[in-house]
Amino acid sequence: MNITIKTYVFLLTFIIISSLSAIGCSQSDDLNISEINPVMNLYDSDIEDFCETPDEDSAMVENNNLERLLPDEDLSLMDKAANKRGKFWPKGKVLRVRFLNGSVAMQKRIMAIAKIWTVGANIQFKSVNEGNSDIRVSFTLGGFNGITVIGTGAKKIGANVATMKLVLPNNDNIKFQRLILHEFGHALGLEHEHQNPKSNICWNKEKVYAFYQQTKGWSKNRINREVFKKYSLYSRQYDRKSIMHYTIKRNLLNCNKAVPFTNQLSELDMKFIRYIY
Q1: Residue 138, strand partner residues
Q2: How is the beta sheet containing 94-99 ordered, strand by strand?
Q3: How far is CA 183 from CA 67, 135, 147, 166, 244, in A?
Q4: What is the pLDDT of residues 170-181, one digit of tens each?
Q5: Lowest mean pLDDT among 7-16, 119-128, 154-163, 238-247
Q6: Distance CA 56, CA 249 (A)
Q7: Which contacts qualify for 245-251: CB closer than 8 Å, 24 or more apart?
Q8: Which CATH number fits domain 5-276: 1.20.1050.40, 3.30.420.10, 3.40.390.10, 3.30.565.10?
Q9: Is residue 26 a contact partner of residue 153, using CB atoms and an 8 Å limit?
């Protein structure tokens, strides 16, 4: 039986989408807003990795188990298969969150932090143990990373498959809160802020390539996708204080100041999510 390359790619993409055990993102009308408000457009990715500029000695150990889930080839295929519409949930929706593992105490801790996003916004997170769910979370301990399906892209994932996978730090409440807020921001439909088309970050690309190749084992294509590529899902005022922004060390830049670590929603994060929802 002859199978064309196009047919093979389609079938392989379908298999990947159906079988991935975790991924880092549908319905939405076009919005027509300015400044901090979104303007819906086209975009080509359902998946968002959580990534920092990690400590070189620990980065590969902490991130390795997540990197194996999505090699560069899988990410490329997911890009091609992605729905080309906005990823924000309808206003007023109660998002049902089901945990696939972990203690009740840890689940409650995660939910308490996630709900910070909903203060003043017309969107809610509700923890459920059974039945239909919008967001499904699995986690392990002993790291600092996550991968999450963006917004309503989660509706394309199997009912018993994680849409958010976390590797949580053991004894670091500050990093713990940052990771949860960042990943649930993706679950609400938000992209990485350093990829905002209005960011104008003057990267030292050679140093960035070297850094992520050394600390995370990423190829140049992966770095282009995760660091340099500008999204076009929506447009808002650039916010270097956003929880959705990578922490960026000064030596990775030709100009600009370093972007410091934060574990808090910025003023614009809160204002933006309240407008969306």
Answers
A1: 165
A2: 47-49, 145-149, 164-168, 135-141, 94-99, 124-128
A3: 16, 11, 7, 8, 9
A4: 989 999 999 999
A5: 7-16
A6: 12
A7: 245/192, 245/193, 245/194, 246/51, 246/52, 246/53, 246/192, 246/193, 246/194, 247/52, 247/53, 248/53, 248/194, 248/201, 249/53, 251/204, 251/207
A8: 3.40.390.10
A9: yes
Q: What are phi and psi of 189, to 5 degrees?
A: 110, 10
Cα separations in angstroms, 105 against 13, 83, 102, 110, 248? 37, 36, 8, 9, 33
Query: For residue 66, what are its two tokens?
Result: 């997540």
* Residue given tokens 């850094």 in the structure block: 211
189's tokens: 């439909």
Q: What is the pTM of this model?
A: 0.71
